[in-house]
Amino acid sequence: MMASSYNAKEEDANHPGAANHAGVGVVKSKKPDNTAFKQQRLPAWQPILTAGTVLPAFFVIGLIFIPIGIGLYVTSNNIKEFEIDYTGANIDNPCYNCAKNFSWNSTAQCVCAVTFTLEQPFESNVFMYYGLSNFYQNHRRYVKSRDDSQLNGDRSALTNPSKECEPYRRSEGSPIAPCGAIANSLFNDTLQLYHIDSNGTLNEIPLVKKGIAWWTDKHVKFRNPGGNNNLTVAFQGTSKPVNWKKPVFELDPEDPENNGFINEDFIVWMRTAALPTFRKLYRIIQKKPSTTPTLPSGKYVLNVTYNYPVLSFDGRKRMILSTISWMGGKNPFLGIAYITVGSICFFLGVVLLIIHHKYDNRNNSADIPN
Amino acid sequence: MLRRTLNRWLGRDERRVDSRSICVGHRSSSNNEAFIPPKFCDNRIVSSKYTVWNFLPKNLFEQFRRIANFYFLIIFLVQVIVDTPTSPVTSGLPLFFVITVTAIKQGYEDWLRHKADNEVNKYPVTVLEQGRRVRKESEKIKVGDVLEVDEDETFPCDLILLQSSRDDDTCFVTTASLDGESNHKTHYTVPDTEKDLESLNATIECEQPQPDLYKFVGRMHIYKADQEPAVRSLGPENLLLKGSTLKNTQTICGVAIYTGMETKMALNYQGKSQKRSAVEKSINAFLLVYLCILVSKALVCTTLKYVWQNKPGQDEPWYNEKTQREKDTNLYLKMFTDFLSFMVLFNFIIPVSMYVTVEMQKFLGSFFITWDKDFFDPEIKEGALVNTSDLNEELGQVEYVFTDKTGTLTQNNMEFIECCIDGFQYKYQDAGTDLDGFCVTDGPANKVQHKAGREKEELFLRALCLCHTVQVKESPEQGQGQRDGLMDQVDGLGVDGKGLHPPPQEQRGFIASSPDEVALVKGAMRYGFTFLGFESKTMKILTRDNDVERYELLHVLNFDPVRRRMSVIVRSKSGDTLLFCKGADSSIFPRVRQEEVERIRMNVERNATEGYRTLCVAYKYLNAEEYAQADAGLREARLALQDREEKLMAVYNQVETGMSLIGATAVEDRLQEEAAETMEALQGAGMKVWVLTGDKMETAKSTCYACRLFQRNTELLELTVRTLEDGGRRREERLHELLVEYHKKAVQDAPPVKAGVTRAWSSANHDYGFIIDGATLSMVLNSSSESNSSRYKNLFLQICQNCTSVLCCRMAPLQKAQIVKMVKNSKGSPITLSIGDGANDVSMILEAHVGIGIKGKEGRQAVRNSDYAIPKLKHLKKLLLAHGHLYYVRIAHLVQYFFYKNLCFILPQFLYQFFCGYSQQPLYDAAYLTMYNICFTSMPILAYSLLEQHICMEVLLDNATLYRGIAKNGMLRWGPFFYWTLLGVFHGLLFFFGVRYLFGNPALQDNGQVFGNWSYGTIVFTVLVFTVTLKLALDTRHWTWINHFVIWGSLAFYVFFSFFWGGIIWPFLKQQRLYFVFANMLSSVSAWLVIILLILLSLLPEILLVVFRKPRGPHAGQLSQEGLLQTARLHLSHHLPIST
């Protein structure tokens, strides 16, 4: 298509009028400018990758990566993580009955208690996650089924949610708030953790529900319509998502800073997971001021209010307790990868050095007759 | 194209008559009452394609006719109609951008054309209507109008010259804007027309418009009140072409015969056929592969989707119900739309932006050729010219070079060297410098010995002075004087041109269409015979005795390449009618008395072997009867409407017989500067050089030796008329025999060297040169029997391909094109390049893949029809070895890189489908999808493809062998393509799975918070952008500040953009997917670590390859360069034979 411009130029030049015009000025301007750019002689750096320059790089990479990898691996190994499946898919699981008898309509809450033992004490802050498997939060229909302007407190979106929310847009004639499949399927199991101390009493472990969502999500992206006061009024004329047991303004009635759209559990859920097996931060167990570990080793009971059915799509539910390091949760992958890459680099460096050395000798001797 | 053919087709139906009749001044003749004036088109020139109204639809239609654009349009429409994962904006925006930019560009060009059209169409002209002079706009001219044109004006349409203000009924014209020939051409009025145009009652019958500028036949019937209508013939000499300019003549009157789009000029500019480069073919092949990948990806995903959905609970779990509409949709329709959705999701694998970038690269890149000051020739004050930018990279792929000899290999700057009169050799001793000495009749400087007798000598010199079509250039003052004189004539004072004194010798300049003629006239001048110029139909010459002799020019029997001679018939003062003829020896010798031939033939052949151009001169006396016969024959032939050429030829042949040979001339045509070096470099670069010339064999051969195309040890295989006649047998048999023999010698016995990249030319123990002439070639190509023909052709081709150089002499222009075509279509379809400077090279320039015109002395037709034009032959070396090589490497890398970067862009997206239930969930945000090709990765590759010099120019020029490294489309064959694809796949897999394993635990922040799917995509995308850009950085061998700026700038822009895009709640977005995703990602140490790891790991094989490549020795062309670069830099002075 660019070529046509040349043709055009040519045609133009062939018109007598145009030719005459061009004729005068051209002679002078036809001498090309002697600029470095036009003559393709811009000063240039011409790096050549040779064994000589690459070899040290390989060693350096090896020497840097291996320690990092070891560091990562050790860190990851030091992270304590405990995971327990409470889906109730098997008959021996305490939640089997809850799972089996689940019904959307029942008002009665089914509670099951899962006991487990921590072999090692968990120091510092412990993070409590819930994990779901085979739950496609990244399904396209699901991912797009939300209305961010509604969640941002936009009043018109509150009463008239986006079409993307279908089929969770309206229920019984009134708009759903929050609309969409993501909000509708909010994870609503309640988890409580008790420590069974030596004399058999259950001590409830305090779970902090703040600080589990991204700061920006909590403070900017998610806004209640008309501020955080009097949410009941603000959400008037909307209906709760069909699968919810209570409306959005009752998510956390005690704390107005954690209610409505800015409820952190809700915000965490709204950040759709990348893979069908995922975990989401549920609660934080703060480090105790004393020297005693946050979670001493011993027996624990997990009290589950079983509201969330997953067996229908062959899903699994887990509760995860984990400490966190500077690199995040437990994940040996990075450490192993770094060690591997570092070692490969180092090994290649050695191989290259040998080859380079041999070749260089040959090359030099070959050069002499030249 | 289609439209044009259609037009022509319809047009032919409309007017099948092969001639048109025009009433001069619209006065229909009295004896032809039933005459209905036919309808002709008006004089509007329309070179513009669009009008304001049809611009949008027509331009859009034109643009969407391109397959690529159409494909993107379809994708866009699918996105609009079907519920697809990416918003229509992602593909609509780039498409809109491309379409808009192109439309604006084309609109602007069309506006320029409109402007130029208007300038021409609204140009005021003077029309004579019923005796009044009316000013009109040029576009209102109708066929049959009588126009008046003043000096230095251009003719508004094709005119038949009726009246001139010059007293000799001629006018001078330059056709500089038509064919670039700036000499003044003489045109003649129609003989015997009345001076009073108002009372002229005439009709013109002429052929239908045809594009040949130099052909025209017509007839004029002049009706006079009471006489029989007179008939006058019209030829090109009566026709004034639109676009040419009136010179040295005050006014002329003419009648319009072809107007508007039917003028010869307009017919000549209906575009050339588009040439497509080999790279483009490769791109299309690669596109097909990627299209297959795309379709198969979509098919796999669709199939798997339905397999997966069949498992219970997967298709519609309670948390993710379908909408009512989805439930209602027919299953098969749903499958189809799913397939389309996947296509849309993966369509980025075929990037819109590649087309834009390739076009930009070609367009901008071609400027470097025009800008190159090495191509600037101070003599003609011009640099190189690029007529098409589509073929830049083809310059790096040339395998066969077809070159013209005269003007291309040689300077076409003729110098009279010697002559031979009556068998005696006269060599002009160049003792003196200027010509003054030779005006003296018998001064000592005059070295003309009267060997051959004064009479013969003078006859010979007179012949040289008379037998030509040279004009004397009038110096400005003189022109002024003449103009005054003409004014006087108009005023009726009747002052003759006699009053004008001949200009001083020093100022005498000659203008002729061929430089040989000037050389001859100047040569004669040295010996004391000066041509003073024309005076009406009289030629004046100044003899040695300072007498002015006058000869009446009766007829000019023009030169043409078939006859290869020209003649004039003049009448001397004494009343003798003489015919002087000059021409090639082969065409003169048979036409003269044989006893004279032998003495001169020896000289001619000796001169020819010395590399001179020889012409023989002959004359004959015509007695009155003979002349009358010839005169009648010529006139009759000139009047003929049909087959005029043939008839003229017959008369010419009849007249030019029985002449006596006087002598021969030798003119030296010097070699172009550095012709030999250039040819050597081209051969060193693995190109085969064929010389195609119209010249005779001996001359051409000597030029070949001089250019080092033939070496001393080259064994010449001759296949010419002479060798064919040797055996005394039938030519056909002999031809067959020779072909077989040569074939055996050159092809079968030759050591089996592998053709291609690594062929070692210098080591071949036998060099063959092949010589063939036109007549034999036509025997080879048009052999009597069909089977023989193809067999001969094959043999011929094989012989030629095994010879280092081939010389084809005595070629007609069409034969040149035939040869090019034959080689072009031979096995392996090699890339051909034709280079020439004259009109006779146009056909081969158009035929070859790349046509190069030399801005020489033989007019501008070659330049106009070429793809590239350069001032000198020596520039070809840099054009091919440096520019061509670099352009090829650049664009090949550009293409491969583009496919690669989009493959590793889309592959993670494809892999993600396996983890998101085949739901067409995009991995990247829409902004990233859109911007990836437009902003983040486009500029570095564009900069690379404009500035890269993987080997610096000097080295490329010094080592012609480097050119072979990229021969046969070396960087775009399936091997490299496979490598790049593999690399793309490797990178894509690495990016996706690297991050996949990281997300085994999505709690990546030190506060225990988790990342979601958009963080996943952003990490992959960040790795992708960095890897792809750094991969290019690794390939960049030539880092100018622009490269630095663009590469680091792109990365910085990506980071900046990501912050910006995620930093604001965008009101126009439905979903704030990326809100603070990027910032959060950067706050995670693990994300940093994985990004660094993956980038490094992806580039590791690249780095390794670079290092390992060198010691292993080059095996692929692309690979060898790094190694060579190094060694070449180390030993700049050495010639580098490629090992292996």
Automatic annotation (TrEMBL), chain A:
Listed transmembrane segments: 48-74, 333-355
GO cellular component terms listed in the entry, alphabetical order: apical plasma membrane; endoplasmic reticulum; Golgi apparatus; transport vesicle membrane
Entry membrane topology: Multi-pass membrane protein
Location within or outside the cell: Apical cell membrane; Cytoplasmic vesicle, Secretory vesicle membrane; Golgi apparatus; Membrane
Alphabetical GO biological process terms: phospholipid translocation
InterPro entries attached to this UniProt entry: CDC50/LEM3_fam (IPR005045)
Recorded family membership: Belongs to the CDC50/LEM3 family.
Protein name stated in the entry: Cell cycle control protein
TrEMBL record, chain B:
InterPro entries according to UniProt: ATPase_P-typ_cyto_dom_N, ATPase_P-typ_P_site, ATPase_P-typ_TM_dom_sf, ATPase_P-typ_transduc_dom_A_sf, ATPase_P-type_domA, HAD-like_sf, HAD_sf, P-type_ATPase_IV
Annotated catalysed reactions: ATP + H2O + phospholipidSide 1 = ADP + phosphate + phospholipidSide 2; a 1,2-diacyl-sn-glycero-3-phospho-L-serine(out) + ATP + H2O = a 1,2-diacyl-sn-glycero-3-phospho-L-serine(in) + ADP + phosphate + H(+); a 1,2-diacyl-sn-glycero-3-phosphoethanolamine(out) + ATP + H2O = a 1,2-diacyl-sn-glycero-3-phosphoethanolamine(in) + ADP + phosphate + H(+)
Enzyme Commission number(s) from the entry: 7.6.2.1
One term under GO cellular component: recycling endosome
Domain P-type ATPase N-terminal: 37-91
Binding site for ATP: 404-406, 517, 559, 582, 613, 693-695, 810, 816, 840-841
Sites where the protein binds Mg(2+): 404, 406, 837, 841
Source superkingdom: Eukaryota
Subcellular location: Cell membrane; Early endosome; Endoplasmic reticulum membrane; Membrane
Similarity section: Belongs to the cation transport ATPase (P-type) (TC 3.A.3) family. Type IV subfamily.
Protein name: Phospholipid-transporting ATPase
Native source organism of the sequence: Champsocephalus gunnari
